[in-house]
Design brief:
Length: about 120
């Protein structure tokens, strides 16, 4: 059974940083691209960033470019999202997704809450 479990969310002031982690089990992690999506209150899911299986090709939405960095450790079956200079509009539940892009049928974890406020 494939499982994705996120951690690292929390409350942070604007301008702060957080590191999200997602541990994947039940699948050969190194064979899959991974991505992060977020869901803000009252809005639909928004794909944020994706990384290929080797970890050498990364993509981001414009809203987080130069602030967020996606990375992976295939030895630990873990994907990360380093978030810097956080803004209130980054407040959302962040989930990792099996695959480099997100669709309604994508397998994803339950998510971790990120709240950015003064």
């Amino acid at each position: 059974q494939v499982q994705l479990v996120e951690s690292g969310g929390g409350w942070v002031q604007p301008g702060g940083s957080l590191r999200l982690s997602c541990v994947v089990s039940g699948v050969k992690f190194e064979n899959h691209g991974m991505s992060w999506v977020r869901r803000a209150p009252g809005k639909g899911p928004e794909w944020v960033s994706g990384i290929n299986d080797a970890g050498d090709y990364k993509t981001y939405i414009d809203a987080v470019k130069d602030r967020f960095t996606i990375a992976r450790d295939n030895g630990k079956s873990t994907v990360y999202l380093d978030m810097h200079n956080l803004k209130p509009e980054d407040t959302a539940v962040y989930s990792c997704v099996l695959g480099r892009f997100y669709s309604k049928s994508s397998l994803k974890g339950p998510g971790t809450q990120v709240t950015v406020s003064a």
